[in-house]
Amino acid sequence: MGFHALSGEGLTRELDHLWVAPEQLGAGVGAALFVHAARTARAEGASELRIASDPNAEGFYVKMGARRAGEVPSRPAGRTLPLLVLRLASASIALGIGLLQTLGGRAVLRRA
Ligand SMILES: CC(C)(COP(=O)(O)OP(=O)(O)OC[C@H]1O[C@@H](n2cnc3c(N)ncnc32)[C@H](O)[C@@H]1OP(=O)(O)O)[C@@H](O)C(=O)NCCC(=O)NCCS
């Protein structure tokens, strides 16, 4: 269905990958994976999650509670990517309640 990958350690973690299989797009899988990544980072002691976002995914991360914090060079070089930050301490309510309410009606959670 999809996967995520975190990197870094300590107070700041990076979301290096978040991918959903094309046939599952729009079904809540991305949000469920994002919540899992954020909860994992927070449980491991991080206070913020940074995302060098694909430009097309920025709206998704904003919907998940992250905020634009600048731009970073892409790898490989050649363009800049939006940098988004999710503050994990202040996101506790959103992560614990808001996003789960958002996800509550979705098929992915009914199957989980
Ligand atoms: C971005 C991605 C992970 C979203 O996954 P998804 O499973 O389709 O997202 P969800 O169904 O969980 O959507 C959650 C909410 O975000 C919104 N959303 C999803 N993708 C969006 C986008 N690209 N822009 C704006 N909003 C988006 C949905 O409409 C939904 O909103 P709603 O709750 O109001 O209905 C997925 O499109 C993907 O894998 N893209 C290709 C890889 C990629 O770009 N990953 C990011 C790398 S930084």
Runs in which pLDDT lies below 50 for 5 or more consecutive residues are: 104-112
Beta-strand percent range:
25-35%
Number of extended strands = 5
CATH class type = Alpha Beta
**Order of SSEs:** EEHEHEEHH
Mean pLDDT: 85
Class from helix and strand fractions: alpha+beta
Name the CATH superfamily assignment. Gcn5-related N-acetyltransferase (GNAT)
CATH architecture: 3-Layer(aba) Sandwich
Bound molecules: coenzyme A
**Span from first to last CA?**
12 Å
Assign a percent range to the helix content.
Answer: 25-40%
Q: Biggest sheet, in brief?
A: 5 strands, mixed
What's the gyration radius in Å? 14 Å
SS field, number of helical segments: 4
Query: Which fold name is given in CATH as the topology?
Result: Aminopeptidase
Principal-axes shape call: globular
Strand order of the largest sheet: 1-2-3-5-4
Task: Please tell me the total number of domains.
Answer: 1
